[in-house]
């Protein structure tokens, strides 16, 4: 069962590993990112960052879509973490059962604009998020579970 989907350019770190996991009761983190899935050192670091008893799986976007749609992840309380809005766009287009996306933190890059204190989006990110919202996916920003959700689409 998917209990959360979050874009966070830092992937698994303190907020994800402790605040979010304990708040939503996840027992498995799926890191869906092509670069991380192809970097053994990063995969090891991501697995070490998780709390004890929480499984961490690192897969490419395509493998993540296949695993979610096959039902193999259904036995977990799954928290999906993606590095970029583009990763999320690809995953959510391939997994229509996911109906919400927390854009928790994105990197400031050339051409990006600041939307919240931790979310910077470029034109393609904005277009991708608007397309996802048209599919009745709730798009919001929420740094930590105790923060109020910010409707990102209203800010774009």
Rounded average pLDDT? 95
Low confidence ranges: none
What is the radius of gyration computed over CA atoms, rounded to a whole number of angstroms?
A: 14 Å
Question: Helix content range of the residues, please?
Answer: 25-40%
Q: How would you spell out the order of helices and strands?
A: EHEHHEHEHEEEHEEH
Largest sheet: 7 strands, mixed
Largest sheet, spatial ordering of strands: 3-2-4-1-5-8-9
Supply the number of helical segments: 7
Mass-distribution shape: globular
Structural class of the secondary elements?
alpha/beta
What percentage of the residues does DSSP assign to strands (E)?
Answer: 15-25%
**Overall number of strands:** 9
Distance from N terminus to C terminus (CA atoms, Å) equals 30 Å
Oligomer: single chain
In brief:
The protein contains seven helices and nine strands. The chain has helices at residues 14-24, 34-37, 40-49, 61-70, 85-94, 123-133, 152-155, and strands spanning 2-8, 28-32, 55-59, 78-82, 100-105, 113-114, 120-121, 138-141, 150-151.
């Amino acid at each position: 069962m998917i209990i959360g989907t979050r874009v966070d350019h830092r992937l698994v770190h303190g907020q994800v590993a402790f605040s979010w996991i304990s708040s939503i009761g996840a027992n498995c983190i799926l890191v869906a990112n092509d670069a991380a899935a192809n970097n053994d050192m990063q995969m090891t670091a991501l697995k070490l960052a998780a709390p004890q008893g929480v499984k961490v799986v690192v897969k490419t976007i395509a493998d993540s879509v296949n695993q979610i749609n096959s039902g193999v992840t259904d036995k977990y309380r799954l928290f999906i973490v993606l590095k970029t809005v583009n990763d999320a766009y690809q995953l959510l287009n391939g997994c229509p059962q996911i109906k919400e996306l927390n854009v928790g933190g994105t990197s400031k890059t050339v051409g990006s604009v600041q939307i919240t204190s931790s979310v910077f989006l470029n034109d393609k990110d904005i277009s991708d998020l608007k397309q996802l919202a048209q599919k009745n996916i709730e798009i919001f920003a929420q740094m930590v579970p105790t923060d109020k959700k910010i409707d990102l689409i209203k800010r774009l």
